[in-house]
Amino acid sequence: MLQLTTTSNGTSRVGSRTGPLVVGIGGTMRPGSSTEQAVRAVLSAAEQAGARTHLLGATALQLPLYLPGETRRTAAARQFVNAVRIADGIVIGSPAYHGGISGLVKNALDYIEDLRDAPRPYLHGRAVGCLVTARGSQAATTLTSLRAVVHALRGWPTPLGVAVNTENVTFAADGTTTDSHISSQLSLMGEQIVEFALARSTAA
Ligand SMILES: Cc1cc2nc3c(=O)[nH]c(=O)nc-3n(C[C@H](O)[C@H](O)[C@H](O)COP(=O)(O)O)c2cc1C
Fold it and tell me: Of 92, 98, 169, which is best to mutate to test ligand 1, by the most ligand atoms within 8 angstroms of its C-beta?
């Protein structure tokens, strides 16, 4: 996984390795967050498929509540926006909180408004894997709303979205899970993100 360096003019360096950059966004502040582990598993598959990756887990998502009209940004907010700006593919993971996306994740996504006038506005031209964890069947409802957010941000949700019922599926610290079906879905999502990024770069 890459360490992004934000320079004084607000741009980010990602090192000299090649391959599309896939940025993972998501998690909860709960120690051992299954959402963050699931995002890690997708990034790991993306790396296997030839991507560079960077994780913006729950700690990196602790940003002040997005305030329209406020142009000052904390260092964490600048790093978040810059990582999204340079990403070639993205995976977003959220827990289902009361039938919707968590406030932590949605607040961070609101900062993508800063990319309204970017050369690639919002999530334009990027494949976005959408994954949700929930202790039950409401994962599907939340997955639908996460996809709607990605569409509103002009991203391309991957054909495969993943809903993980954490009542039945547990993650190890390295992102592996006891459920082979979920493991293969998370891998496929990583592959689809990279496949799209490579196809777009060839077409450009
Ligand atoms: C405040 C809160 C609200 C939740 N609401 C729902 C819900 O509406 N539906 C559901 O299936 N699970 C709900 N859950 C369960 C979480 O979605 C589930 O435990 C998730 O996997 C937690 O992710 P984590 O392991 O990354 O912390 C809720 C949990 C919390 C703490």
Answer: 98
How long, in residues, is the chain?
204
Tens of pLDDT along the chain (204 residues)? Answer: 666 655 444 444 455 478 999 999 999 999 999 999 999 999 999 999 999 999 999 999 999 999 999 999 999 999 999 999 999 999 999 999 999 999 999 999 999 999 999 999 999 999 999 999 999 877 899 999 999 999 999 999 999 999 999 999 998 877 788 899 999 999 999 999 999 999 998 877
Q: Does residue 6 lie within any of the structural domains?
A: no
Which atom of ligand 1 is closest in space to residue 96's alpha carbon? 17
13 belongs to a structural domain: no
Phi-psi category of 56—alpha, beta or left, where left has phi over 0 and alpha has psi -120 to 50?
beta
Q: How many domains does the chain have?
A: 1
**Which residue among 137, 166, 170 has the greatest number of ligand 1 atoms within 8 angstroms of its CB, and so is best to mutate?**
166
CB neighbours of residue 32 within 10 Å: 11
Domain limits for position 133: 19-203
With respect to residue 150, please indicate whether it lies within any of the assigned structural domains: yes
36, containing H or E segment: helix 34-48
CATH code, domain with 97: 3.40.50.360
